[in-house]
Amino acid sequence: MIKTSPTASSAVFLFNLLFLHTLNAASVPIVKPYPRLEDLPKNLWHELSSPFTEVYEEESIATEIGATPEPRPFFEDADSNITAQLGTNVHMHCRVHDLRDGTVSWVRKRGEELHLLTFKTFTYSNDARLSLDYQAPNDWRLLLRYVTELDAGVYECQVTAHPPLIRVVYLTVSVPKVEIVDERGATAGDKFYKAGSTIELKCVVSKVPHPSGYVTWRHGARMLNYDTTRGGISVKTDMGAEGAVSRLYIANANKKDSGNYSCSLADVAATTVSVHVLNGENPAAMQHGGSAGLRSAFALIIALSITSLLR
Predict the structure, then answer these.
(1) Would you report the helix, strand and coil content of the chain in percent, each value rounded to 5?
(2) By the 8 A CB rule, do 152 and 186 touch?
(3) Ramachandran category for residue 13: left, alpha or beta (phi over 0 → left; psi -120 to 50 → alpha)
(4) What is the 8-class DSSP label of residue 224?
(5) How far is C-alpha 15 from the geometric centre of its chain's CA atoms?
(6) Does the predicted model carry a pTM greater than 0.85?
(7) Are the C-beta atoms of 179 and 215 separated by less than 8 Å?
(8) Preceding amide of 283 cis, omega within 30
(9) Closest C-alpha to 153, from 203, 202, 208, 113
(10) 20 to 30 Å CA-CA from 103: which of 14, 111, 283, 286?
């Protein structure tokens, strides 16, 4: 006896079935002995053409209709980390290719919450500093003006697709540090100078990734960088890759030069030091003693007062 595979047997049975159906249709056109023949699955014809094949591959819809699938959208850039200086403007880029009928949105992610910022070219955030600044041909960049420390975090550029496309931007805000230091590099709170000496103040600006502003010196509300009314004032500033060092010189100091001196980087960060110009004090204590010199002067005054009381 010859053995056949189940698939081959099924193929022979179905062939006979089709043959009988054809004969019945010719002789008795109204009667259908096999009324469910039309409901046979479409892949039946695939089985008949390959009766001994047990594994089949599903054909895609595009192949069945003979069409070429449309290209999916994709990002030009990968996820990125951006560092912005406090108070500056920053662009977060989102370059999308083959967008076609898709849409682009920007959202802010805080923990598990997502806050919609823009959709297409429309802004949905209540923050007036945020807007979509589209740049042809394909950059759906988000513009954030006057960056603050609270703006640091995760932003997502989302494209409608199946599945959706998401590009993540991590924003870090750099806060500049401004200090007026003494000769040893320590932060100075008070500076003492003898009348007729030269006032020298040193300002160190750090944590600035791309210094864009300039260092400004003020005595009270008066700007000193370009002051020509008093004379004897000079400012020297050295800009570096990560900050700046600025020095203020005031020759022939007098009592009017006493007061608060401030050093600032544009309108972003500033610090202040108090300068005291005195007469008749020990020059070493006044120029180099700092707050220690002030404590020594107070101690001397108290000692003299006690001595006078005991007499």
Answers:
(1) 20, 35, 40
(2) no
(3) alpha
(4) -
(5) 68
(6) no
(7) no
(8) no
(9) 113
(10) 111
